[in-house]
Amino acid sequence: MSLEVSEIFFSLNGEGLLMGVPTLFVRLSGCNLRCTWCDTTYAWDPGRSLSVDQIKNQVLEKDNGHCQWALLTGGEPLIQDVRPLVDALKPHYKIAIETNGSLYREVLHDMDFISADIKPPSSGNPTTEYGTLTKIIDAITERSGQLKAIIASREDYAFIRALTRECDITVPLVLQPCWGSVTYDFLCNLYLESPLPVESIRILTQLHKIGNIK
Fold first, then answer.
1. Are 21 and 112 in contact, with CB atoms under 8 Å apart?
2. pTM (two decimals)
């Protein structure tokens, strides 16, 4: 069993409810979307083919001895069969996943934390498949995690507002400004002018951008 891997590294989680948490990242290669503002376009390309044992060993080598979390990210990790990797890492770490929200897989129910995107119009791939989104919300409800949306304009914010009227968002929703397009205070003011009807919401920025870390 092998997976296409873009990179494996140790850093701080830069987004969402696990912001600032020391994390071992496994960035898998390939993605089924081409978002206009993607900041990891290099992960679209083919990566190195590594066995599950090779990946696990590299993760363990990069551990500082105190890290509790391993994060599967991409690209889009769910276009590959990640279950064997999850099983291999679980004895050592809590497992988180970052997914673009366009795919649902049963393996989500084995995660300790799920971060799934809602894509607004500026991405070029706006979220319209509410059935998939509902299944992901159910998985987050069962396990733990968040929905996350990058906001690059007022139109994006209006899109998320409309979506929250169509879908019952019962899990934490994180809104972040699109780096280089709008500022954090712009997004904060959008929310304060017109709060979203979501009980658990966080208006955050991207820590790894501020800290200039990977």
1. no
2. 0.96
What's the chain's length in residues?
Answer: 214
CA angle 133, 138, 141 (to 5 degrees): 125
Number of domains in the chain: 1
Tell which residue, 76, 144, 75, has the closest CA to residue 113. Answer: 144
Angle ∠(153,156,158) on CA atoms, nearest 5:
110
Going from the C-alpha of 8 to that of each of 47, 57, 147, 155, the distances in angstroms are 11, 11, 24, 35
| Cα–Cα distance measured from residue 40 to residue 75, given in angstroms and rounded to the nearest whole number | 7
* 72-97 residue pLDDT tens: 999 999 999 999 999 999 999 999 99
DSSP sequence for 47-104: -EEEEHHHHHHHHHHH--S---EEEEESS-GGGS--HHHHHHHTTTSEEEEEE-SS--
Does residue 190 contact residue 182 with C-beta atoms inside 8 Å?
no
Q: What is the pLDDT of residues 153-210, one digit of tens each?
A: 999 999 999 999 999 899 999 999 999 999 999 999 999 999 999 999 999 998 888 8
Domain with 155 in it: 2-211
- The CATH number linked to 133 is 3.20.20.70
Helix (H, G, I), strand (E, B) or coil at 133: helix
Give, as one character, the DSSP assignment of residue 208: H
